[in-house]
Design a protein that fits this description.
This protein is of the alpha/beta class. The protein has one domain: Aldolase class I (TIM Barrel, Alpha-Beta Barrel). The chain contains twelve helices and ten strands. It has a six-stranded parallel β-sheet with strand order 2-3-4-5-8-9.
């Protein structure tokens, strides 16, 4: 029996938050519905942040109110603080993501708080969530390199992973926020984190800025990680992180895993029309490394003249 991997789609949140065009709540729901129809069962649907800071995420409560297939899809929402926790739980969110940038400067740029204060806030949210039956996952951002402070020492990542584990985080997600990691660094960071948290509790979030995301995923797979974030068509990038281009493309991750004999529950070709739909919505040319080939295969299967994308 094939081993199962979890592919967590972050396009509707991380993918959209840095785009110039702001989609309406209805547009975002249409995007989510298409992803769900294509087989996505784990999805970050939005963030409960100030619309002044991230206007692309305005109306997230409306999105959560009308999410499709709630019984079969695990939806998550990102929150920056306790107020965000309260807004998210009022909107019905049951899985929440907190983000702790593990360098001082990135943390200040991202949410305007000190590193230690943010760690304290994340701890408080995780503990409250445990008491109220809310699953809280902890992202450790800039875990490999910070755009302001340079390379992150693995011991720093281990320290904060330990803190989030002790607080009771449901998952610890190691995030390569600017796409600067390489496979050797991935192994080094995961080795340290695995000393304080079980590997089955770890997930990875890679950007493909330098074209190494799939290699980094392979390194994490070899280490035992079985969950990865991705964004449809490679959409995304952190608005507070210079040089952070798109996330690794969902179609690339799914094709890699399925080709290796693993089970994701998603057929790579089914993602092609979704990429095309979201290209029209956003006005951004999308597609990962495998997309042109996948698009040709989809066109051939469906008997339409191929335009390769």
């Amino acid at each position: 029996m094939a081993e199962t991997f979890r592919v967590n789609e972050v396009g509707p949140r991380d993918g959209l938050q840095s785009q110039g065009k702001t989609l309406t709540a209805s547009d975002r729901l249409a995007m989510i519905s298409s992803l769900v129809d294509a087989g996505i069962r784990h999805l970050e649907a939005g963030s409960f942040v100030s619309p002044k800071a991230v206007p692309q995420m305005a109306g997230t409560a409306e999105v959560f109110a009308d999410l499709p297939s709630k019984q079969s899809v695990r939806y998550a929402g990102l929150i920056p603080n306790m107020k965000g926790y309260e807004l998210a739980t009022e909107a019905g969110a049951e899985v929440l993501n907190v983000v702790l940038s593990v360098t001082e400067t990135m943390n200040q740029k991202n949410i305007g708080m000190s590193l230690d204060k943010t760690a304290e806030v994340c701890e408080s949210i995780i503990r409250r969530g445990r008491g109220e039956g809310i699953e809280v996952q902890a992202y450790l951002a800039v875990a490999f390199e910070c755009p302001f402070e340079g390379r992150t020492h693995p011991a720093v990542v281990t320290r904060f992973a330990d803190q989030m584990q002790e607080a009771g985080a449901a998952k610890i997600i190691i995030a390569d926020t600017i796409g600067a990691a390489n496979p050797a660094q991935v192994r080094q960071v995961l080795h340290g984190v695995a000393e304080v948290a079980p590997v089955e509790k770890l997930s990875c979030h890679f950007h493909d800025t330098r074209g190494l995301a799939l290699a980094n995923i392979l390194a994490a797979i070899d280490f035992g990680v079985r969950e990865f974030d991705s964004s449809i068509g490679g959409l995304g990038g952190c608005p507070f992180s210079p040089g952070a281009t798109g996330n690794v493309a969902t179609e690339d991750v799914v094709l890699l895993l399925e080709s290796m004999g693993y089970e994701t529950g998603i057929q790579p070709l089914d993602l092609v029309p979704v990429v095309r739909e979201i290209e029209v919505m956003t006005g951004v040319q999308l597609g990962g490394k495998s997309y042109r080939w996948l698009a040709q295969q989809w066109d051939k299967r469906n008997g339409v003249p191929s335009h390769g994308g």
